[in-house]
Design goal:
By secondary structure, the protein is of the alpha/beta class. The chain is built from 16 helices and 22 strands. It binds nicotinamide-adenine-dinucleotide.
Length: 490
């Protein structure tokens, strides 16, 4: 049975309650996890409060050294952690290993920044005395909470833990109910590397209960959520009245434009990964594809060939033979939602050009896994669910466009503004896309990928604030002004 990590120790829920974590590829029990209640959350927050001043006073070099020791410990358990992530999340082993690698890279990035946080010295006008100056001190915000979704449990924990810890804050992580296991393993290893008790903790259970209790506790000063826009609204509602610092990394419906001068072969390869990685369950994914009519046929030929070669299955075996390119959807609900969005499109005249069905292979059909074949859809109504809702699965709706004006107008006709991309050799078109598409990121001739080095966050219903990059650290610090008056009063 998995345990939470509270105040430097592995812990069951005080109530003794647990819940089951199931494998999305076959419905088998992977493990049980504690179902935390208010009293467990209270214990974690008390421990975090007690740890705060000691951690804030730990030197940046020492914080970084502990983090680096933790990174080494996680690396030493990489295979075990990747296998655990595959079992609880469903992604094939090669994707789970890739996610762990990304997590470690991000943690290393933040360990490197620990000693580089800088405030400022500011000369002040002489009206109240000559030689007065100000300092801008960077102070840690206090007890932080990181609420993480199930699609990338490790990287999205890292985007919170890394900046929170190097800025001198304790942080409590609440993983998604369905993906607590690899997360808890990592939290344990990072603690064993020398974090003082209460600095990094993991509490498991339902979002509505554990998450809301964490957010509402008066001692919590900072909440970082990655999740759906609906949950983001709820978090804002709860955190707002107490003026808590928040960042919300929410849903998206990223548009991608392929221009007549694009390198079509590369665009096809990038867009296939950009849509079907993690079985399409990505915030940053090509979710609406706009193809100029000049390259439509050539692009579609390449796209359908690549998608047709995708093999869907249980990616937990190594070596993966035959090579499983895509795992199951994470839950039965996810698959039903995708099927509903597809049915809506088809009932209104769209054509599913490939995929979109549950696999015929009896071994998969009878496995209890939530498998679905990757799909490409043409002639989707622009007010249909595939265009207006977030499509969190392996379905790609494709439209023809005649001009860049039309493509950008359609790209912006969405409630979301997370990622976006354009494939072109034309610098002025790339510049227009970068300036005019309403999104947190625009990739030019690139896969939708969240670099640790660059700030990342959405506009419109995709969220508030940024993670990644040095910019993320600012959200875990308060700027305190200090004035040193001049010494020439007499
Ligand atoms: P979700 O909103 O259902 O859950 C996210 C987390 O919030 C989970 O830990 C959940 O337990 C918790 N939660 C749920 N209700 C809560 C509440 N009332 N109070 C506090 N916590 C609560 O999202 P999901 O289904 O796990 O993840 C998919 C969504 O996340 C998609 O919309 C996706 O686009 C988005 N996402 C965004 C980014 C980004 O960086 N912008 C990255 C990954 C995923």
């Amino acid at each position: 049975m998995a345990k939470m990590f509270i105040n430097g120790q592995w812990a069951d829920a005080l109530s003794g309650q647990t819940y089951e974590v199931k494998n999305p590829a076959n419905g088998a029990l992977v493990d049980t996890a504690p179902m935390a209640g208010k009293e467990d959350v209270e214990a974690a927050i008390n421990a975090a409060q007690a740890a705060f001043s000691r951690w804030a006073d730990t030197s940046p070099d020492d914080r970084a050294a502990i983090l680096r020791k933790g990174i080494q410990a996680v690396e030493a358990h990489a295979q075990e952690i990747a296998a655990l992530l595959t079992a609880e999340q469903g992604k094939p082993l090669f994707e789970a290993s890739g996610e762990l690698h990304h997590f470690l890279h991000g943690m290393e990035f933040y360990a490197g920044l620990a000693s580089k946080i800088r405030g400022a010295q500011v000369p002040l006008p002489p009206a109240l005395g000559k030689h007065a100056y100000g300092l801008v001190l960077k102070r840690p915000v206090g007890v932080c909470v990181g609420i993480v979704p199930w699609n990338f449990p490790l990287t999205l924990m890292g985007t919170k833990v890394g900046p929170a810890l190097i800025a001198g804050n304790p942080i409590i992580i609440k993983p998604a109910r369905t993906t607590p296991l690899a997360t808890l393993k990592i939290i344990g290893l990072l603690n064993e590397a020398g974090l003082p008790p209460g600095v990094l903790q993991g509490v498991t259970g339902a979002g509505s209960a554990v998450g809301e209790t964490l957010i509402c506790h008066p001692a919590v000063r900072r909440v970082a959520l990655t999740g759906s826009s609906e949950t983001g609204r709820r978090v804002m509602e709860l955190a707002g009245p107490e003026f808590k610092r928040i960042t919300l990394e929410l849903g998206g419906s990223d548009p991608c434009i392929v221009c007549p001068d694009a390198n079509v072969k590369r665009a096809v390869s990038g867009i296939v990964v950009g849509r079907y990685w993690n079985a399409g369950q990505q915030c940053l994914a090509v979710k609406r594809l706009y193809l100029f009519e000049e390259i439509y046929d050539q692009f579609m030929e390449g796209l359908l060939e690549k998608v047709g070669n995708y093999r869907v299955g249980d990616g937990s075996t190594k070596p993966e033979k035959p090579f499983i390119r895509m795992g199951p959807l994470h839950t039965a609900y996810q698959r039903e939602e995708i099927e509903d969005q597809l049915a809506d499109a088809v009932s209104r005249g769209a054509q599913v050009l490939i995929g979109g069905k549950r696999p015929d292979d009896p071994a998969l059909a009878l496995s209890g896994g939530h498998f679905i074949e990757p799909a490409v859809v043409a002639n989707t109504p622009e007010d249909g669910k595939l265009a207006t809702e977030e499509v969190f699965g392996p379905v790609l709706p494709v439209w023809k466009v005649k001009s860049l004006d039309e493509a950008i107008r359609k790209a912006n006709a969405s409630q979301w503004g997370l990622g976006s991309s354009i494939w072109t050799q034309n610098m002025s078109w790339a510049n227009r896309a970068a300036r005019e598409i309403q999104a947190g990121v625009t990739w030019v001739n690139q896969i939708h990928y969240g670099y640790d080095e660059l700030p990342f966050g959405g506009v419109k219903a995709s969220g508030v604030g940024h993670e990644h990059g040095p910019e993320a650290v600012d959200y875990y610090l308060e700027n305190k002004g200090v004035v040193f008056g001049g010494l020439d009063w007499e």
